[in-house]
Amino acid sequence: MAKTGSLNGNKYGINQLFGANGWLYAGLGYKGHPGVDTGQKTGMNVYCEESGVVTGAYGVAEGGTAGRYLQVKDKNGATWRYLHLSAHVCKVGQAVKRGQVVGKAGNTGYTTGPHLHFDFRKKYYNPWNGYGGRTNPLEYLRKYLTVATTPVYYYVKSGDTLSGIAAKYGTTVSKLLSLNPQITDPNKISVGQKIRVK
Fold first, then answer.
1. Which residues lie closer than 8 Å to 167 by C-beta, 6 or more apart?
2. What is the Cα 97 distance to its own chain's centre?
């Protein structure tokens, strides 16, 4: 994860959400995927999600299906794990801060390609929740993340007005004008004109 809240600063996005693919994880005793996977290239920086202390740094042999991984306990007693790493860059007992590089992404353990799996377990958790006590880290991270939206466009039809288009899309004329700097006069739009509405 990144200090900017951009899912580890990567441009590859989320590959697998928490709870996905129940059929695949049933054999491991889970209802679904017990974490979040983000696309990474081997060697990309992995950032600490919340300040705390490193409580575990496991090698490939020790980590089993998780491969090489790191565990950080934050100030609230929650545990963050970063799996399938190619390398750790901190040691057990070391204090780490949110946004600090703690490892390098990799392809160790049970994987189908390079990625970062991270998961989150609150201080007080239900070990029988179907996910080994883990909860969706994105619910916690929401306060840090900025969601990029895909622009939505509308093509002007005969009889359309900017205020009518704004009403149709639940927005305001001033918001439409800020999304469309090419419109200099809100009373002058033309049929076929492409207008960004979201």
1. none
2. 19
- DSSP conformation letters of 117-179: EEEEE-SS--TTSSSTT-B-HHHHHTTT--------EEE--TT--HHHHHHHTT--HHHHHHH
Token duo for residue 6: 């951009």
From CA 72, how far away is CA 52, in angstroms rounded? 6
Residue with tokens 């466009």: 153
What H or E segment, with its residue span, contains residue 24?
Answer: helix 22-25
What's the predicted TM-score (pTM) here?
0.67
What tens digit of pLDDT does each residue of 52-99 get? 999 999 887 777 888 999 999 999 899 999 999 999 999 999 999 988
Per-residue CA distances from 54 to 13, 77, 88, 103 (Å): 26, 12, 11, 12
